[in-house]
Design brief:
Elements lengths: L4 E4 L8 E6 L20 E6 L3 E3 L2 E3 L11 H16 L11 E6 L1 H12 L5 E7 L17 E7 L7 H13 L3 E7 L7 H13 L5
Parallel strand pairs: 2-3, 2-6, 6-7, 7-8, 8-9
Antiparallel strand pairs: 1-3, 4-5
Helix pairs in contact: 1-2
């Protein structure tokens, strides 16, 4: 399974960090690109298209009539994402700090990537309006990894209770989670963007 991506290069041509954007179900690699400035002017940003056609866009995995995830598709997508990260080029003969940000299904994929890799090579994860992982991995694998978790209290797609379940999973896995709840639906607000930017500065990533 090959993943297609859009790439935004840093202004100087020599990145000091790398970011990966993962969109939600029914969208595509263009969806989160307007948020690239959050990563700073010297970041190389990969916005990845999910591999499974869905409606007008793409999805990371299918969902059955009972709301359950297609585990075969989910596992294949996680493995493809792991392969994408493993193949990222190094600059100046060293790996660069990596931030992974995802929305909805993409946020869940960001968490799955972190847990599957046991945070190896990851500087931070941003999980927005995401459901919990369809399979519960081992706990204690994230070892203090900084994670920004955001969710809307009026979200009708990934209801708040499901978002809170995802939050607890990240905490049990050992992540250092900064949690924010917003009076919004299934979207990303200006306030959330400002909080992400502030958080990236606080953890000294990209700024």
């Amino acid at each position: 399974m090959e993943l297609h991506s859009r790439v935004i290069e840093p202004k100087s041509g020599q990145p000091t960090s790398v970011a990966i954007f993962l969109h939600g179900r029914g969208s595509d690699e263009e969806d989160l690109l307007p948020l690239a400035p959050l990563m700073g002017s010297e970041a190389r940003v990969y916005s990845i298209r999910a591999p499974i056609p869905f409606g007008p866009g793409w999805a990371w995995y299918g969902i059955g009539r009972d709301g359950s995830a297609n585990l075969e598709q989910w596992r294949a997508s996680v493995e493809a994402l792991e392969g994408f990260v493993a193949a990222l080029p190094a600059d100046n003969q060293k790996a660069l700090p990596l931030v992974v940000m995802g929305f909805s299904q993409g946020g869940m994929m960001a968490g799955a990537l972190a847990i599957r890799r046991r945070r190896e090579g990851l500087a931070a994860v941003i999980s927005l309006s995401a459901p919990p992982l369809p399979e519960v991995p081992e706990t204690g694998t994230l070892d203090g990894l900084p994670v920004f978790w955001g969710h809307g209290t009026e979200d009708p797609v990934v209801i708040p209770e499901r978002g809170e379940e995802a939050l607890r999973l990240l905490q049990r896995a050992g992540a250092r989670v900064t949690a924010h709840r917003y009076p919004i639906s299934h979207t990303i607000s200006e306030g959330e963007i400002a909080d992400i930017q502030r958080w990236l500065r606080e953890i000294h990533v990209n700024y």
